[in-house]
Write a structure and sequence with these properties.
This protein is mainly beta. About 10% of the residues lie in helices and about 55% in strands. The protein has a five-stranded antiparallel sheet with strand order 6-5-2-1-7. A hairpin with a 2-residue loop joins strand 1 and strand 2. The protein starts with a strand and ends with a strand.
Length: about 120
């Protein structure tokens, strides 16, 4: 699996550039936020009658990062996979639900949303 399209590198247009994901890493982080349940109430003299009540809300986020290697074309990648033109990192929020695509497919789907790879096709 890879993407193919026109890529400009240092002013040179590679009309059949071959973009291959070399790795994807997935990490889960837990975020917390405070949600106001009830506001503080005050006495007539300005002192606090009842403190504000907050609840803590926890949410999981799946952070993914990866790297692509860009080759002149598919033949260049096949001839020598270590001879890529440039490698670039990227990040996206992943999905680990039971019916989600695997991380690599999610990564390719994400790449196609970026302006840099607009119009690229799956190969």
């Amino acid at each position: 699996m890879a993407l193919q399209g026109s890529y400009t590198f240092k002013g040179i247009v590679l009309s059949e550039a071959y973009v291959m994901i070399s790795y994807v890493q997935t990490n889960k982080s837990i975020n917390s936020s405070q949600n106001l349940v009830s506001a503080a109430t005050y006495n007539s003299d300005g002192t606090i009658d009842q403190e504000a009540v907050y609840e803590t809300i926890y949410s999981s986020i799946i952070n993914c990062n990866g790297e692509v290697k860009i080759y002149k074309d598919a033949a260049a990648k096949t001839a020598n996979p270590h001879d890529y033109i440039i490698s670039k990192g990227f990040n996206f929020v992943g999905d680990v639900s039971a019916d989600a695509d695997n991380a690599v497919i999610q990564a390719y789907t994400h790449l196609k949303t970026l302006d840099e790879y607009d119009g690229y096709t799956d190969v």
